[in-house]
Amino acid sequence: MSRATPPRIRIVQLDRATLRALADQDLTTAQRTSPVPLSPWLAGPDCVGTWRFRARQAEESPQDLPWVTGVIWDEEAGLAVGKAGFHAAPDADGMVELGYAVDPQWRRRSYARAALEALIERARREPEAKVLRATVSPTNAASLALIHQYEFLETGEQWDDEDGLEIIYEMPVDFP
Question: Would residue 139 count as lying in a domain?
């Protein structure tokens, strides 16, 4: 199967002040503290739940801050096109759960693939990361199609209070 060449992106980590501003939907303050310009979508209703959780997490578990959700930054276009990261630092078994979302105006341009590949590569560089986990709604056809193109295996399902039913996929970090 031929894959589209993903755009050149990086995931830009955010500090506590930026996470807090985004959690408060205060784009003006977030722009002042962010290392890259942010889009209105990142401070809007589609993302606020993530930022509220991550801002609280950064305060309660500061060791997670370098791992949690950041901004998908298109290097060539100089644009924030989405958010991606891990849910936390690796747990005691070395599992890290990843997540990503692309701003609707930038979807279908391979940004999700680029973010997923960046997260896989990041996990591969971290000795404490052993297993990657992705959870996907059974109704999210685009994410399911993307996950199925990699070495993820379905391992079960779970109920998420915010997202509803999710299928759990896992893959060893050291896959071929």
Answer: no
